[in-house]
Amino acid sequence: MRKNIVAGNWKMNTTLQEGIALAEEVNEALAGRKANCDVVICVPFTHLASIAAKINQEKLGLGAENCADHEKGAYTGEVSAPMVASTGATYVILGHSERRQYYGETAETLRAKVALALENKLTPIFCIGEVLEERENNKHFDVVKAQIEEGLFNLSAEDFGKIILAYEPVWAIGTGKTATADQAEEIHAFIRKTVAEKYGQEVADNTSILYGGSCKPSNAKELFAKPDVDGGLIGGAALKCADFMGIVDAF
Ligand code: 13P
Question: Is the whole-model pTM more than 0.85?
Answer without folding.
Answer: yes
